[in-house]
Fold this sequence. Notes:
Helices cover 35% and strands 18% of the residues. The protein contains 14 helices and 16 strands. The strands form four sheets. It has a five-stranded mixed β-sheet, sandwiched between helices. Strands 8, 9, 10, 11 and 16 form a five-stranded mixed β-sheet that branches. Strands 13-12-15-14 form a four-stranded antiparallel β-sheet. A hairpin with a 7-residue loop joins strand 2 (16-21) and strand 3. Helix 4 (170-183) crosses helix 5 and helix 8 crosses helix 10 (314-328). The protein is globular, with a radius of gyration of 22 Å.
Amino acid sequence: MMTDKNCVVIELGNQFTKIGFVHDPAPRAIVRTKFYSDKLGKEVYLMVDQRDCVDHNGGTLGDEELTNKLKLFIQNLYFQYLGINSKERRVVLVEPLFLSNKIKKILIDIFFNHLEVPSLAFVPSHLMSLVPCLISTGIVIDSGYTETLVIPIVDGETLLSSVQYARLGGQEINKCIREELFQRKAKIKIGSVEREFNESDDLSENIIENIKVKTCFVAPFERGQMMASFKSSVGPEPSECPPDVKFHLDGSKNLTIPGSLRESVAEILFKNYGEEQSVPSMVLDLLLSCPIDSRRTLASNIIVIGGTAMLPGFHHRLEEEMEYLKSTEARYSKLATIEFLFHKLLCKENYASWLGASIQGSLDAVNRASTNKESLQQSGGDSFEDWSGWWPKI
């Protein structure tokens, strides 16, 4: 199981996969987790942390096709981005909190029977994000593409009963962008002809993602309050919107992104609609569900990760919303004296868990959790330890 060569670290995400080597300060490559499905007749993003393997439009994938396509995808990671012999390197695979057993078994089969790696270890993504901060107790806010998870960890133990989950993430923001391009009558210019954006102007998911990343941001707290008041018809329309920007599509096509769209699409993350949660309320509800003697320590060790958290203004707005809810909502009165403190990451939020695995991958804890093919066969396929059982105290 031991080798002198640095092992490979892979994190399969809903939209992006990060791959590199132990001790690296950043992934060698970040690529989209997608492949072309023959059954569905289109490109599919694999949702590795869902119980069923579906594409973003609800189409299902057959087990055989899923296995074959995922095999080709991982093989391409090795030969195109790493350029190494898979038989010579151990593998550390960063595991989402709710990784399905179906996907896990497929991955084990691919790495041992197809790539023939010396050993394989699964490490939990939420615990890995604590490693660069050198803490063992804290709250991990993971705001990714399909969802936001808020996870409490006390002395390296995950309090699963207090985990908060909501389908708030980059995918919902992308839907808002599509809707508001029509509602706000955005202008599209083809050559010298300019007209309003309409349904025939079908934008791919990649283009919508680029619009979000390159032009959108999270509005300040006061501005968000004004937009919420206007939406509920109890306040005037906010004035002095951000400037419109020109977004180049392809060839001679240019799309004008309204300034009001740029600042409003991320509001879905911070507002309560009926009984639905917002990201700030998820954090406060989590604290109320945790043991009272751990609340103050948890609140003073908050880590924010995930691609959606990279939107400009996200961290500042999140903190202000939490302070506002704590002081105005009666149900959060028990948290009135608690102070929120956020850790500053050593890297970008989208690969914080990968960096933790890169650091942790050289330690004995991961070596002990690694399993080779022979041990797996002798144990009948049950030799992988549950991640909650081997995590060391930091």
